[in-house]
Amino acid sequence: MSAVTAAGPFRWLVQLWAVVVKEVRQTVQDKRIMALIVIAPFLQLVLLGFAIDLDVDQVPTIVVDMDRTPESRHAVAALMADGSLTAVGTAGSPSDADAALDRGDAAVVLIVPEGYARDLARGEPTQVQVLLDGTDPTRSGIAGGAAVRYFGEQGFSLAKQRLAAVAPDVQISAIDVRSRLAYNPSLSTPIYMVPGIAGMLLLIITTIVTAMGLSREREVGTLEQIRVTPLPTAVLMLGKVLPFVAVGLFDVTLALTAGVYIFDVPIRGSMLDFYIVTSLFLLTTVGVGLFLAAVSKTQQQAFVGAFLFILPAILLSGTMTPIHAMPDWMQPMTLLNPLRFYLEAIRAILLKGASLSDVPVQTAALLVYGLLILGFASLLFRKRLD
C-alpha cells in the first residue's frame, strides 16, 4: 500500500519533469524566442537607461544684452554658472532672438534691457525678460525657474545691502533652508528609472513569450497530440508555465545585474524579498499570457492581445510619469494595475532597503491579483484543452 502511495507523487514529478524538459528544448530551438529572452532585455535596458534622462541642464539660451555694461555681463555669466542654462549665442535685438527661438536654435531667450545697470545703481525697479519655448513644458519650467530664482536672490541681496547702509541697526529675518537627499543623493535618473524599466521588460517578455509559446503549440496541433496521452491536465499546465516563470526570473536577474554594474543602481534590501515580490508579479504576467493563449487561435492574435494589455499597464504604472501627476479620474484606475504595485515594492526594497513588512499593501495586492488572474486563466485554458 505504501509503495503505491509513494509511486503516485513520484510518477507526477516524472511527468512534470518531462513536460518542463520538452518545453525548454522547444524554446531553446526557437531562435526568435531565445533572442527575445536573452538579448532583447539587456539591450533594451541599456538603451532605455541611457536614453531616458529626466535631468534638465544646459538648456540652450540666446542672450540679448541691450545694456552692454559690466553689471549686465556679470548677471548673465552668473545666471549661466550653475549649468541649468548655456549660452549658445547672442542677438542684437529681441526680434532676432524671436526668430532663433522659432527656428529651434535655442529654447530660452534672455533679454537684459537698456539701463539695467543704471536702474540698479539708483535703486529703481528694473525688468529682465525671459522668453521660453513652451513645446517642452518640463525644460521650460526648469529654465524659467532658474532665471526667476537667480534674479530674485539678486534683488533680495541688493535690497538687504541698501537697508544696511541706511539703517545698520535693523536686522532682517531670514529662513535658512537646508535639504538632505536620501536614497539618491546625486539625483541620478537611472537609479530611479532602471527598476521601472526592469519591471516593464519583465511584463513584456513573460507575457508575450507565454502567450505566443502556447499559441504556437495550439496552432501546430502539439497540444492536441499531448492530450491523447494519459498526462493529467494539471501536470501539463504546470509544466508549461514553470519554464516561463524561470525565464522571468532569469531576465530580471540579468536586468538587475546590468543596472548595478552599468548604472550604479544600489541594492539596499534583501534579494530574497526582491525575488519573492518578483515571483508574485510573475503569477500575473504568466497568467495573462495563459489567458491570451486560451482565447487566441494564432500567434498573431496572441501578440496583438499582449500588446493591448501591456501598453495601458505601462502607462498606468508610474514607470515614466508619477501617478500623482495623472488626472484625478485616472488615478483610481492604477489600483487595478499589478505593475504599479510591483514597481512600488521593488523600488522600496532596492533603493530604500525596505522589507516585505514595509510594503504589505503592495505584496498583498500582487498575491491577490496573481492568484485571481492565474486561477481564471488556468480554468479557461483547461476548459479549452478538454
Structure description:
- The chain has helices at residues 2-29, 31-51, 70-80, 94-103, 116-122, 137-166, 189-220, 222-227, 233-263, 271-295, 299-315, 338-352, 360-385; strands at 59-65, 85-90, 108-112, 129-132.
- The protein is mainly α.
- The protein folds into two domains: 2-52 and 187-385, no CATH class; 59-166, 3-Layer(aba) Sandwich (abc type-2 transporter like fold).
- Helix 7 (189-220) packs parallel to helix 10, helix 9 packs across helix 10 and helix 10 (271-295) packs parallel to helix 13.
- Residues 1-6 have low confidence and may be disordered.
Key traits:
disordered N terminus, 4-stranded mixed β-sheet, 13 helices, elongated, mainly alpha, abc type-2 transporter like fold, 6% strand, single chain, 386 residues
Helix content: 55-70%
Report the principal-axis shape. elongated
Rg to the nearest angstrom? 30 Å
What's the overall average pLDDT, rounded?
Answer: 82
Span between N and C termini?
32 Å
Q: Helix count, per DSSP? A: 13
Order of strands across the biggest sheet? 2-1-3-4
Strand percentage lies at 5-15%
Multimer state: single chain
Number of domains: 2
Strand tally, please?
A: 4
**Helix/strand/pairing category:** mainly alpha
Biggest sheet statistics:
4 strands, mixed
**Low-confidence parts, pLDDT < 50 over ≥5 residues?**
1-6
N to C succession of SSEs: HHEHEHEHEHHHHHHHH
